[in-house]
Specification:
single chain; 332 residues; alpha/beta; five-stranded mixed beta sheet; four-stranded mixed beta sheet; 11 helices; 32% helix
Length: 332
């Protein structure tokens, strides 16, 4: 029996219509376009303005886009993994609702939370279910409504994040395409550097926590940047070495879109030229869990069957890693 690998067979995405530009942010906080662009590479980000819609709305739209493009029957999906840092609510898993709303009535679902590395860790999880031989179609959806947890009076964070969603379908492959290898890491040293103080079991919500703005993202920018540059570049270099890959045999780096300087540092360590690096941070900012699949959506028409891709991410906690994938289909 041929070895089963987990291949990506379809992608889909969604970003809200409203565009929050650097020029608009200039009217909200003490910042300017040149400062934001030079330090992050971000020009604009998309925001879900409807207060009655949460992360699930973004996820559902991305999943529906995938289903339509690939002509996939949702009833054939075995499971739905929801990668997110901003679930609709606690206890009731967002992924369960998403699966029901897209018609995946035969799937089981759950949420996977690993900050900006959620999609990357979800790739590993989805691959294992496929490789077991028990599941044939695993839908990994990554979505975040970051605007719901951002203080738009805090210029350290409000310039970075945007809302968006991406979806990827994994199916069995016996031709050698799909997920080849992974290196995933985490370190609790980052617990205090990128977090939301209140709202969890450690500090439940009170009038005081709301008044103190403890339900918004806090980021120690310098510490996070230092760890991200070092670890994302290191892990990408290690997975290359472990699989005998070089700048000539890697077709694409798919990096987390957190900061252009982090992306460039990772590519430099891998000796990859700019044309082999997926970038859309200028359009969407950091959509957290959704950055990697949104890259696939934007670059799908340039991907060719047999292309070697290195996915790399870094997130709060800290969490980070790299996944090596061989692309399974030609441009549609």
């Amino acid at each position: 029996m041929s070895k089963i690998s987990a291949a990506i067979t379809a992608v889909g995405g969604y970003v809200p219509d409203y565009v929050l530009t650097n020029q608009i942010l200039e009217t909200m906080v003490d910042t300017n376009d040149e400062w934001i662009t030079s330090r992050t590479g971000i020009k604009e980000r998309r925001i879900l303005k409807d207060k009655d819609k949460g992360t699930s709305y973004l996820a559902i739209q991305a999943a529906k886009d995938l289903l339509k493009k690939s002509n996939t029957n949702p009833e054939e999906i075995d499971m739905v993994i929801m990668a997110t840092a901003t679930p609709d609510m606690l206890v009731a898993a967002t992924g369960v609702y998403v699966a029901t709303e897209i018609g995946a009535i035969n799937a089981f679902s759950y949420d996977l939370v690993a900050a900006c590395s959620s999609f990357l860790f979800g790739m590993s999880t989805a691959a294992k279910y496929i490789e077991s031989g028990r599941y044939k179609k695993v839908l990994l959806v990554a979505a975040d409504k970051m605007s719901s947890i951002i203080d738009y009076e805090d210029r350290a964070t409000c310039i970075i994040f945007g809302d968006g969603a991406g979806a990827v379908l994994f199916e069995p492959n016996t031709e050698g395409y799909g997920v080849q290898d992974e290196l995933l890491r985490s370190d609790g040293i980052g617990r205090q550097s990128l977090k939301i103080d209140a709202g969890g079991s450690l500090l439940p919500p009170t009038a005081e926590t709301v008044a103190n703005k403890q339900h918004y993202v806090y980021q120690d920018g310098k510490t996070v940047f230092k760890f991200a540059v070092s670890n994302m570049a290191d892990i990408s270099e290690k997975i290359m070495a472990r699989n005998g890959l070089s700048e000539d045999t890697i077709n694409w780096l798919v990096p987390h879109q957190a900061n252009m300087r982090i992306i460039d540092a990772t590519a430099k360590r891998m000796n990859l030229p700019p044309e082999k690096v997926m970038k859309n941070i200028h359009k969407y900012g950091n959509t957290t869990s959704a950055t990697l699949p949104l890259c696939l959506v934007d670059y799908e028409k340039q991907l060719k069957k047999g292309d070697n891709l290195i996915f790399a991410s870094f997130g709060g906690g800290f969490t980070w890693g790299a996944v090596y994938v061989t692309w399974a289909y030609d441009p549609i």
